[in-house]
Design brief:
The chain is mostly helical. It is 68% helix and 2% strand. It is built from 19 helices and four strands. A two-stranded antiparallel sheet has the order 1-3. Helix 9 packs across helix 19, helix 12 crosses helix 13 and helix 13 packs across helix 16. The chain is elongated and about 80 Å long. The chain starts with a helix and ends with a helix. 41% of the residues are buried. About 5% of the residues have low confidence.
Length: 448
Amino acid sequence: MDQFRGLFAKLDKNKNGLISMSELENEMKKHGILFVDRKVQSIIDSYDKNKDGLLDYQEFLNYMMDRERKWKIHFHDLDKNNCGVIDQEDIICLFKELGVVISKANAKSIIQMMDKDSSMTVDWAEFLHYVILNPVDSIGELVSSWKHSLVFDVGESRAMPIEFPEGASGFGAWRTFVLAAGLADAVSRTVTAPIDRLKTQLQVHGSKAFSQGFQEIRAGGLRSMWQGNAVNVLKGTPQSTLQCLIYAQMKVCTQNSAQETLTVQQRFGLGCVSGAAAHAAFYPLEVLKVRLNLQQAVTYHGVWACARSIYRHESLSSFYRGFKPSVLCMIPYAGVECAVHQSIINWAKGDPAYNSDSQLFFFSFVAFASGQITSYPLAVIRTQQQAQAFSSDSRPASGMLDGLVGTYERRGVRGFYNGMGASFVRAFPCALINYTLTRKFEELVSSI
């Protein structure tokens, strides 16, 4: 009971004999717990008997004792060698049972979330303290919370664990994550498809994109705003998954056994190579998406019709039109985003003042914006070349350098950033939907 009384006194910051929602949320955030608003509300709803929105000692004691009864058995299950503490090897063994091979550095980070005396082991008292502040109901949910504490969704439309699993069984956690991320990615791309289409039109047509967009809505209805979304969904998750697999395998070969984390230079290099390789593999689908985005009044009747038309009336090389600026665009984008994201998140998670959900989301957006700003002019040239032989307004040049010069002559420096505002606007709902739905879909897929 002394440890319970001590924890209650620690949480009761203003010493009024009651724990408020804000006091409980702040303590959870200090321990790196995510989704604190939802978790605190659940505790209050279940144990606040007098419904005053606060927990007195007896109410909080009931909650703590319920947690003790629930997790005592789980602690013994995690303690594989029955030594009374959980260490890094126990964490690695747990993840291995779930089909994921994690590094000692990640296992160490998980131990440090719970370790209060810096012994690099977690005894029962420390573990109980942690599961009181992290009200998960099963080992699966606990592992999921650890994963989401180590990884934060990044990018315009993908949710990908850059640093998490170094290798995984196709029937373990990788399968669960890929399915969950794929479903979330499909939803986010579909919801934001009209903004993505507007961005493509702005890159090719400039300010005329708005008037053309209204004309297309009048001709084809609101459904026309989702032209090209099917192929965008088809390429999104496989491309992100391939990039993640390449990154993870290259990381295993690059990182020294004594090296706990990758350097910024290593992250940049691996991000560049994995991003460029995955992008090259799925590039024809990107060309199809752009053509469908720019079609006038149902020029193409579906993805296959678009592909056949390009093959018959142009050539196979048209499926890789704009590939050079696209790869050059992907290298700084993926490299900068990976390096900035992982560096900021590693720094932020070391300071409880910077690890709230909203702040971590903001840091992820900063990484995405950094990648976009450094690579966007090449993205504009890529889209214009993809539209070649299709849109007379694009007036693409024969080469990348000519395209840069031509864009500057027609639209000035501003022309290199047409559509970037739409890209940023799209990034917020995309990332929010991915971040929220991936976790829910993971729970759903795990239960099947």
